Amino acid sequence: MSRTNSAEQTAIDAQQRSAANGPVGLSETPRSSSENRSPQAATSPAIHAIGLSKRFGDTIAVNALSMTVERGEVFGFLGPNGAGKTTVVKLLLGLARPTGGEALVLGAPLGDREARRQIGYLPELFRYQPLLTAREVLRLHCRLLAVPKAMWEEEGREALKTVGLLERRDDRVGTFSKGMQQRLGLGVALLGNPTLVMLDEPTSALDPVGRHDVREIIRGLRERGSTVFLNTHLLEEAEHVCDRVAVIDRGKAVATGSLDELLRRQGRVRLKVEGLGPSWWSGLSRFGRWHREHGWTVVEGIDPSRIAELVAELVSLGGQIEAVIPEHQSLEARFLELLGER
Amino acid sequence: MNATLTIAALTIKEAVRRRLLLAFVAITVVIVGLSAWGFDRLSHTNSLTSGESNLAVPQALILFMFMFSFVLALSASAIASPSISSEVESGVLMTIVTRPVRRTEVVLGKWLGLATLLAGYAAGVCALEFAVVRWASGFLPPNPLLAGVYLFAEGALLLTLALLLSTRVPMIAAGVIGIAAFGAGWLAGVVGTLGTAFNIAALRTVGRVGRLLLPTDGLWRAAIYYLQPPSLIAQHLDEGGRGDPFYAQGAPSSSYLLWVMCWFLLVLIAAIVSFERREL
Fold first, then answer.
1. B216: domain range?
2. B-chain residues within 8 Å CB-CB of A38?
3. What pLDDT is attached to residue A329?
4. How many CB pairs under 8 A join A and B?
5. Which end of chain A is more exposed for a tag (fewer CB within 10 A), N or C?
6. Which of A32, A122, A127 to mutate to test the interface with B (most CBs of B within 10 A)?
7. What is the pLDDT of residues A191-229, one digit of tens each?
8. What domains, with CATH codes, occur in chain A?
9. How close is the nearest chain A Cα to the Cα of B7, in Å?
10. For the segment B37-72, what is each residue's pLDDT rounded down to a tens digit?
């Protein structure tokens, strides 16, 4: 959600993490080219967009998108296929030009060359040079990142080890499966200790083991203080690793916040109560929408902090409480609800 | 500059590992071998006088070099037309241009790498063919170096054009347009030659305009000029043979060469601007 509509934004611990920004975790490779960071960039949000828009003829791909991604957080960018997620990533990386609004990435204008030095990017649809070996691909990107030559081997080795491709380092990329290419892409995105890692559908070609590995890598990135912008339509992925998410639909952010905030807002509780007459039940409406279901009373949309109040009231009215089961709404259900509201 | 060299080195490495390049080299070696046999027969046949043989060998060499200039143009178009378009389509370039690299450096690196390959091919072909002719007949063009340079320049112009096309149109379209433009340029040159021979102003204009719009034929004529021995030029002057498309009356003027330089720079800048402005 936009900065102006900050009611749905959270003030979570991202800033604290960003203050503790440092090279710990994932690898012990010393910082190289990415050490050269401007003071302005170090204090600004990782991504700050205001009214970002992109039109392709009559089609509005991104519609006045406003959002802020703080440093050090794992930010999930969720939306159905065709919602405009990849277009947003391309705008943020300077691959496409916005038709409206503005944005800063690491405190720099879109497409800034120095900012790109600090960004690791895994595109959604990509391929590496099929005639090069995995090791050569990593060396190439080390060169493009201006990593000192003495560190190419170490950086490349560490990246391949992290993504589980060390054994295949001398094989040509053309012989890799799609999943292995995705792993390689992730390894390339990790080179040079990036401050911001943008992952566009990073697990789309991976098996469950690969997905688990990616989650671990993302957690490692967070531990060492990197910001991760995770573009995905796989809600499970976001649920596992994201601190905050934005849900985008038809180019517009329909909700932004921490997962807790997003799900808690729509709490649900299941009650088994005896000893109350039917006339009382209408009083439940002030806690949320309710209905009866196989002998249970289900209250939806209740603020979780009011469940105790509800129980106390039922008891005071002479109700015998047999069971109270607070239920968390799944992200998928909330996601579908948000899209349905549009 | 570093990024330009990195992209150039990458372009060369990839091209060397492709079989296409090997195929070009293999075909070239076969043709040079056949030409060795042909030149040997031509210079040792009893049906020609030594004077006739001295004229026939350079003319045959020009024909062979024309074929190589076509192979060079085909190669230039074949390697340049997919260089950007197909890498954009496959997503290879997405991983490059999101690095701290200017798009200008990507285009220049691609051009430099491909032009190096082309220069290597042109140098190899010229050295082999001239050595073969020398061995078989004893003839060596009056200025083999300049002839080779113009042959390379012809290919390099087409390479630059194909690279420009590659920033906007798909690989096959870029390749076809490049080759078609080369053919049209050569044909316009022939038409212009006929216009000069038969004194038809309109045809002369076609030739002149053609050589300005796409200077490949003008550069091919320059290469011919440096392949011709003085005896061949004298014979053509005697016979007034100005309608021969495989004959060049003079070296290219400095103003024409200046225009060629401008043409090259304009097309290269257009390629850079086109890629800079392209949304990926």
1. 2-277
2. none
3. 66
4. 70
5. C
6. A127
7. 988 999 999 888 877 888 888 888 888 888 888 889 999
8. 6-259 (3.40.50.300), 265-341 (3.30.70)
9. 9
10. 888 888 777 777 777 777 788 888 998 899 889 888
